[in-house]
Structure formats: structure tokens, C-alpha cells
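Quick one, C-alpha cells below:
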């Protein structure tokens, strides 16, 4: 499996995982809880209703993908410099 696919799966898992961390991923506003960081992934309205935010999930996946890709590249440079 290529490193890009692994990074994509990791960013997908982190996007979903951070949406449920109370201190970081959940924000309350007028009785509605918004889940996700840095962008909202979905909203829960308290009466059983919920909605998926329009571009939040795509932004978060791309955001974490770029971060993990940069970390991978830095790690490879450090690994190649020490060998």
C-alpha cells in the first residue's frame, strides 16, 4: 500500500475521531452542537435531528492530509540525512 493511501486513511480516521473529542471537536451554539475541528463536520440539533455540513468534512480531510504528508516528507528527509 502506498504512503499516500495510508496518509489518506489516517486523515479520514483523524477527522472522524476529532469530531467526538469534547474539548477540541465539539462546540455548542444556541442548543446546537457542532462537531469537527477546524471546520464543522456535522451538527446535532438535540431533538434527534442532525445534518452533515457542506464542505467541512472535505476541508478537514484535506487539512489533515496535508499535515500528515508534510510530516512524512520531513521524516523521510531526517531518515535519509542520518543514513
Amino acid at each position: 500500500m502506498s504512503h499516500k493511501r495510508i496518509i489518506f486513511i489516517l486523515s479520514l480516521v483523524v477527522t472522524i475521531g476529532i469530531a467526538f473529542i469534547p474539548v477540541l471537536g465539539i462546540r455548542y451554539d444556541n442548543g446546537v452542537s457542532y462537531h469537527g475541528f477546524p471546520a464543522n463536520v456535522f451538527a446535532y440539533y438535540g431533538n434527534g435531528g442532525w445534518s452533515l455540513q457542506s464542505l467541512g468534512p472535505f476541508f478537514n480531510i484535506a487539512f489533515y492530509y496535508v499535515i500528515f504528508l508534510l510530516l512524512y516528507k520531513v521524516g523521510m528527509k531526517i531518515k535519509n540525512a542520518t543514513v
